[in-house]
Amino acid sequence: MADVKRVVLAYSGGLDTSVILKWLQTTYGCEVVTFTADLGQGEELEPARKKAELLGIKPEHIFIEDVREEFVSEYVFPMFRANALYEGLYLLGTSIARPLIAKKQIEIARKVGADAVAHGATGKGNDQVRFELSYYALEPEIKVIAPWREWDLTSRTRLLEFAENHQIPIAKDKRGEAPFSVDANLLHSSSEGKVLEDPAEEAPEYVYQRTISPEAAPDKATYITVDFEKGDAVAIDGVKLSPASLLTKLNELGKANGIGRLDLVENRFVGMKSRGVYETPGGTILLQAHRGIESITLDRGAAHLKDDIMPRYAELIYYGFWFSPEREMLQALIDKSQEFVTGQVRLKLYKGNVEVVGRSSPYSLYNQDLVTFEEGAVAYDHRDAAGFIKLNALRLRTLASRDRKIG
Fold it and tell me: Is 327 labeled as catalytic in the residue annotation?
């Protein structure tokens, strides 16, 4: 790809992507355009602009965009309608951010006439797959540069040497080996590597970025309500909030109550197992709340079908197939199921736990007259159950009769 003329780089302003920026200039002799997304990672983004300018990027080729509302409304909320968990536990905080970043890079590439895009994901991880599948799904002929698969800067020492040789500013705390690597956005933070590489060892407390420990959480429970409309959370304690503001508020509540920690050994798409420490305080509350409102508004068949397809849906997101037809097909099914998922859930937050303690909906399928042990107003003839049971037992009785004959 020596003929690359202009490349859009997913740029954080950190050491790795700053080295990548200069490496692209020196290796490909191309013009670099930077894109920095505010996904709610909690860091100031203006330093990224200043660093890009220092490295010779034209002001008109530095793109910084606040995408928090789009991130939550168009990516996080659709995923939570599915109650998506990868391998039964992981709330997919890193996975769900990659397609949005890739989409913005492609949009900028079209705007500035770039013929290539680049990312800073390593050759061992999932993110390279997520970025590149998204690029190709949106722009089939785009050229993709993945420096970690090409260059010879294979150690932290060589990376620092390259930075010093090219006058790239290095934060003081980056001069030594970082204790672990962190990725963050409004939904979660993830920590991997170094002190976390031995799965037999408990993660030290300093690893946690977004939550206090459950032991340090208040001794008194916090009660909140979350209102839903068609499967999406719209209000907390009766106060309507935008998607990003609502998730921010849930994050604050989760952090204060030690909610949302996960220590997980997972199976990466590229084939290896990895250990990560994830913090998803608001997302953990949101998942419980959503399942709570679904419990009274979804028909049994619809609810069980959703649970059946959820692992496949979650896997598609984890593997990077957000823009695939199969994910969109499943999304249409999931969104259809949410037509009447409207109402309010009351939650109890206490020392790392989230408990649904109340739920109500104008579309509730819960009928107290049907389930009461007292005399109900709705007719339910107990004798009908005998025929129902006998019909369902027919095949079991047939099997038992055969087994008795041959036994």
Answer: no
In the chain, how many domains are there?
Answer: 3
Active-site residue, 364 included: no
CATH of the domain at 222: 3.90.1260.10
Catalytic residue among 49, 81, 98, 261: 98
Choose, from 181, 245, 295, 364, the residue flagged as catalytic.
181
Active site residue 190: no
Assess contact for 97 and 127: CB atoms under 8 A: no
Could you say which of 16, 38, 183, 232 is catalytic? 16
**Residue 22 near residue 55, CB atoms below 8 Å:** yes
Answer yes or no: do 376 and 262 share one domain. Answer: no
d(CA 349, CA 327): 33
Closest CA to 122 of 268, 267, 322: 268
Give the side-chain half-sphere CA count within 13 A for 298.
24
The yes-or-no answer on residue 263 being catalytic is no
CA–CA distance, 74 with 129 (Å, rounded to integer):
21
Q: Which of 12, 68, 81, 127 is catalytic?
A: 127
Mark residue 212 as left, alpha or beta (left: phi above 0; alpha: psi -120 to 50; beta: remaining).
Answer: beta
Task: Tell me whether residue 320 is in a domain.
Answer: no
Averaged over successive runs of 10 residues, the pLDDT of the chain (407 residues) comes to 88 92 95 97 90 94 98 98 98 98 98 97 94 98 96 86 89 58 94 92 94 97 98 98 98 98 96 96 98 98 98 98 98 98 98 98 89 68 92 96 91
The reply to whether 255 and 350 lie within a common domain is yes
Which strand (E) or helix (H) includes residue 130?
helix 127-138
Q: What is the CATH number of the domain that holds 24?
A: 3.40.50.620
pLDDT for position 2: 61
353 and 392 part of one domain: no
Domain that includes residue 399, residue range = 369-406
DSSP secondary structure code for residue 74 in this structure: I
One domain for residues 171 and 273: no
